[in-house]
Amino acid sequence: MQTFQIKTHQPGRNYDKPHFFILNKGLNSGKPFTAPVRNSFVVSTETILQKEALFHLSYMLLESKCYRYYLKGSVIPFIYIADVKNLLEKNSKYFGQKDFETKLKTLKKVEELELVFQNKLKAIQELKIAVLRSCKLKH
Prior knowledge:
This protein has helices at 48-63, 81-91, 98-134, and strands spanning 5-8, 19-23, 32-33, 40-44. By secondary structure, the protein is of the alpha+beta class.
């Protein structure tokens, strides 16, 4: 596994290497994003494949609630950069395993299906609004 860098994101800064962002404040701490967001860490990698693998690993850690254990703070929970880095390093050993690759492919297919269903739901909602507006109701 090649190395990766994780730093605090500074708004307005551009990154040359393949990268993604991990939210560091709130109950969704650990949530990965492809676009920059406030209160996030930026994870820079050497290759796009490594970026995608780490992105999905971070998503898996979020969904399995692994980040919750490391949340600090009473009003606005947050996670330390060292905790995120340690979690990613500790769990990146699974990258070469066939089981991880299979789950990663399955997860990508599920995300594609989710996007299709979201688009269909949006179209259905627009159709519903069009039907409701076509009703000739009096004021």
